[in-house]
Amino acid sequence: MINKLKHTVRDRIVNAVRPMVEGMVKQRLLPMDSRVLDNSFITGKLLPYNTTSTEYIVKVEKDGRASASTPPIPPLEYWEGYADSDEDYLAGGRKDMAAMLSILNQANETPLTLTKVLDLGCAAGRMLRHYPCLTDTTELWGSDINAKYINWCQQNFEDPFYFLTNTTAPHLPFEDNSFDLVYCGSVFTHITDTADAWLMEIRRILRKGGYAYLTIHDEHTLDLMFTKYKDDPLFFYFVEAVRKFYEEQSAEALKDYVYFTIFSDPASQIFYNREYLVKKWSRFATVVSVTPEAHDHQTAILLRKP
Ligand SMILES: C[S@@+](CC[C@H](N)C(=O)[O-])C[C@H]1O[C@@H](n2cnc3c(N)ncnc32)[C@H](O)[C@@H]1O
Questions:
Q1: N vs C: which end of the chain shows fewer Cβ within 10 Å?
Q2: 193 C-alpha to center of ligand 1: Å?
Q3: Whole-angstrom Cα distance, residue 121 to residue 74?
Q4: Sorted alphabetically, which keywords does the UniProt record give (predicted)?
């Protein structure tokens, strides 16, 4: 009885705040001009430094504390919702990096053997800042479609870090066979139709035997959304968007999917049938391991270029 009452009250609150939440979800996930960003027919999109004018001044954003070993903490609006305090920002990036290194370690690889690295979709270098620089030849690249993040990184990270802005078109300005490791933490979660083309592009720039570490949403992620993360304030917008999508679909529509997606690239949230994806990608590269909850709620797939 009490439970039923609780649910009724909860549903009333959810219904009352839903229009507001929907607006906030869209605003947060699609913060720019949605005529372009929301258009699935357009690829080659980016989040420009200035979204409102073609005349603009790029400001000095260098933090005086920047040094090769300790880049400063970026402004909160560059955190991609990963944390709500400086300590959490650092700890979260360290944890996600440690998870990736541990998975690579199980494949007998370490930062000593993987020295030329690309963090594709690096945001403000949340993970990249923790990659161990163990050799004189280590070269750590970050790229992102958000020019503001890249501008900040270029001003605040020093050697051996390099950064550039790319677009949503599956092309990277790097030579063939030139990287030991390319990783994407929560980036293939925002790429729909061009995901395979992106994987092929990553494969092109990897050397033979090089690794791609990609995190994705799958069925396990969905379970976690409605259990472990359902009341986590950092996941509020995300859980609400998924919940709303789920409520709008029929049980029939949700049966037997290979993937489903909410919103459009680069703000999409794509959820895979894991078995389908692993089978598909194993035709492009060797699937070394699949690790649920490697990146919070996301599953990591480690691939090796044959
Ligand atoms: C959820 S954030 C993850 C950021 C970072 N990887 C981390 O773990 O902190 C997703 C990032 O991917 C970027 N992004 C989305 N699509 C991209 C693409 N096709 N190429 C490069 N970056 C992309 C977004 O701008 C955003 O910074």
A1: N
A2: 16
A3: 16
A4: Methyltransferase, Transferase
Ligand 1, CB within 6 Å, residue ranges: 80, 82, 96, 120-123, 126-127, 144-146, 149, 166, 168, 185-187, 190-191, 266
Can you give the residue ranges of every domain in the chain? 34-219+266-304
Residue with tokens 């919070």: 296
Taking only the tens place, the pLDDT of each residue in 203-238 is: 999 999 999 999 999 999 999 998 999 899 888 888
Q: Are 273 and 258 in contact (CB under 8 A)?
A: yes
Give backbone dihedrals phi and psi of 202, rounded to 5 degrees, phi first: -65, -45
Asked if 280 and 303 count as a contact pair (C-beta separation under 8 A), the reply is: no
| Distance between Cα 186 and ligand 1 center (Å) | 7
Instruction: Report how far ligand 1's centroid is from the alpha carbon of 148 (Å).
Output: 12
**CATH architecture, range 34-219+266-304:** 3-Layer(aba) Sandwich (3.40)
Q: What is the pLDDT of residues 254-304, one digit of tens each?
A: 888 999 999 889 989 999 999 999 999 999 999 999 999 999 999 999 999
**How far does residue 15's CA lie from ligand 1's centre (Å)?**
31
Q: Which atom of ligand 1 is nearest to the CA of 92?
A: 9
pLDDT in tens, 77-123: 999 999 999 999 999 999 999 999 999 999 999 999 999 999 999 99
